[in-house]
Each structure stands twice: as structure tokens, then as C-alpha cells.
Amino acid sequence: MKLGFVSAILPELSLDEVLAYAATEGFSCVEVMCWPTGKAERKYAGVTHINVTDFTAARAKEVNECAARHGVEISALGYYPNALDPSPEVSGVAVAQLERVIRAAAMLGLRTVNTFIGRDWKKSVDDNWPRLLEVWRPLMALAEKEGVRVGIENCPMLFTGDEWPGGKNIATSPVIWRRLFADLGPALGLNYDPSHLVLQHMDAIAPLQEFAPRFWHVHAKDVKINAAARDEHGVFAPPLLWHQPRIPGYGELDWSKFMGALRAAGYDGAVCIEVEDDTFGKSLEGRKAALRTARNILAPHFA
Hints:
Elements: E1 2-6, H1 15-24, E2 29-33, H2 57-70, E3 73-78, H3 88-108, E4 112-115, H4 125-146, E5 149-153, H5 174-184, E6 188-192, H6 195-199, H7 208-211, E7 215-220, E8 222-225, H8 227-233, E9 243-246, H9 255-264, E10 270-273, H10 284-298
Parallel strand pairs: 1-2, 1-10, 2-3, 3-4, 4-5, 5-6, 6-7, 7-10
Antiparallel strand pairs: 8-9
């Protein structure tokens, strides 16, 4: 396995600076964000470390040479929109960018693009499914044609009243993962983040034995449940009222058990730290400190 981080937490830095920082701090890989340039639609979004618009073979060569110069691998390209947004305009922008990211990954010689499936949060899972297939079957056909795998993060994207009641990403549970894999084919897998199961009061280790062969990528993030606030508001209240994202080791998950189970299940890919933990501060130095702290906690699990 290789330890890395998600580049979204360092938006002020160029790709060269991100990879230089990764090398200096002993990270083996980085998941590189590829949002369209422009204003971010939400926190941790809108980060563009590789601009895939009009991406060329020459630009791919530059990116690969930069990574080689620093001795840091690009584990995947990342872009996390809602491709099933009920607005055709919003959905259309997301789908077009996903197509560009898939093609750019192929040009870079990368195997994996990470994203969300998306969801119309006002509809049930079954009522979302016809449009899901309409949008995603062509995307997966493109991915297979380009030799690229698509890793879906299992985040519910349900944190505030604006995402209520269904959340903006449908791929939240084992029963839905099986259905997605059956309907969308072998190039679809997971960018597995255990914290999203902890948030849902689910066992984050139990799925590993069945689903680890479909883990194309792993995010390392933790979550702290405020039990008193949860008991005050209830689990059906927006989760931001009763939980807090934390770095690995500062939340609810037993990372020694998780990493041991991950290795036992045969996973040997990237594990990238995702920082959404404001307790280290919102400055660049604070976010770098969060990355270093998480690295130190997880490093003993990487030979």
C-alpha cells in the first residue's frame, strides 16, 4: 500500500508545489483534484491542480515529468460533483467535466478517476435509478474504452438542510454498491472512505472482505460523533449538528483494526489522507500540520 493525501486541502499551491511538499514530507502519492476552473460550489470543491480542459499529450508529458521529478505518484484524478443533479444545466456541466477527466487520466497513463455517482436528493433510490443508468452507462462505456476505472466515494453528501432528505450521492451502502456494480460493469469500483459508514452508525470494517476487490482507491478520514448533540437533535437531523470530520486517529474509528483488515482483505493500493478537520486551523500551515499529524498516525501501517 502507498500513503498519500488528497490535494484539495492545498488549493493555494500549484501542482509542482503540492508534489514537492508530498516528497518533502515522505508521502508516496497524491490524489490530484481536477475541478473546472472558477468559483467553488461548496467547501473543499473547486480545486484545480490539473486543468483538463483542452488537455494535450504535451501537457500530460509535463505532468508526468513533474511527478517523476519529485518521486511522487499520482494515485488518481479526483472530481466530485453531482452528475444526477435535477438541474439539467448542473448535471450537464458535471458530466462533461467527468468525460474530460476520464480522457485526461488515460492520457496520463493513470488507472483511476474518483468521483460521486450523485443523486436527486428529493427522490428515492428506485426513482433515481432510471436516470442514473441513462447518465452513467455512457460514462462507464467511455471509461472502459479509455482503460480507466471509476472509483465512487461512498459519502452520502447529506450534511445540511439543503441536501435533505436523500443526500446528493446515492452510493452509501453495500446493498446499493452491489446494484451499481451489477448495472454499470467491472470498471466501476469504490473510493472507500470508512468515515462515511461511521457517520451512518455502520460497521466500517465488515464490508472489506466482500468489497475490497472493488476498492480502486481508499480515503483516510475519521469522524467524531457528539453523542450529546445527537441525542438532543436525533439521527434524522442534519449530521452537521452532531458530528465533526477529524483526521485519522482523532475520531471514532480504530485505525489499527481497519488497516489490518484492509491488508488482510488483499488491498494494495493508495490510501490518501483527506483533511476536513478544522481543529488544526484553516490556515495553510494548519492544514499542513493536519496532514503531517495524520501521516505520523498512519505511517506505522506502511512498510
